[in-house]
Amino acid sequence: MDLIAYFSISGNTKKVAEKLNSLVDADIFEIKAKKEYPTEYRSLVDVSKVEWEENQRPELAEDINIEEYDKLFLLYPNWFGTVPMVVATFLETHDFAGKTIQPICTNGGGGLGNSVSFIEELTDGEVFEGLGITSSQVDTCEDKLSKII
C-alpha cells in the first residue's frame, strides 16, 4: 500500500499531491507543524531560516501510523536547498526500514537542492531519485508524475 505525505504552505505542493493521488491508489496525509507557519512570505522566510540554521525539529500537529505502507511519496517545497524542518521531524519519527521513499520537490527554480541526500541521512528506507517540479510546472505535472509511479 502507498502513502502520499506532503507539506505545503503556498498550495503548490498540495496541488501536486492531489494530482499524484488521482494517478495512484494511495492514502494521503498532510504534514503540518503544531505551531502554524506565518502566511506572509518575509515572516515565513525568517521563521524557516531560524529552523534551518538551528537544525530545529518542529513538533507535528498530528501523525500517521506508516507501518502498513510499503511506499512513501514524499512531497515538499525546497526550503534553503533541502526539506523543511517539519518534514525532517516527520521522517525522523518513523521507521522506514523495508520501505521505499519517492521524493518530489516543488521549487521556484532551485531544483531538489540537497534534499534527497538529506532524506537518505534521516531515514533507513530506500530513497529513489527525486523529482523536481517547478512552480510553473505545477498545473501540468501529470506527465512528470506518471513517469515515477
From TrEMBL:
Domain of life according to the entry: Archaea
GO MF entries: FMN binding
Alphabetized InterPro entries for the sequence: Flavodoxin/NO_synth, Flavoprotein-like_sf
Pfam family, one: Flavodoxin_4
Domain called Flavodoxin-like: residue spans: 3-117
Name of this chain's protein: Flavodoxin
Source organism per UniProt: Methanobrevibacter woesei
Organism ancestry: Archaea, Methanobacteriati, Methanobacteriota, Methanomada group, Methanobacteria
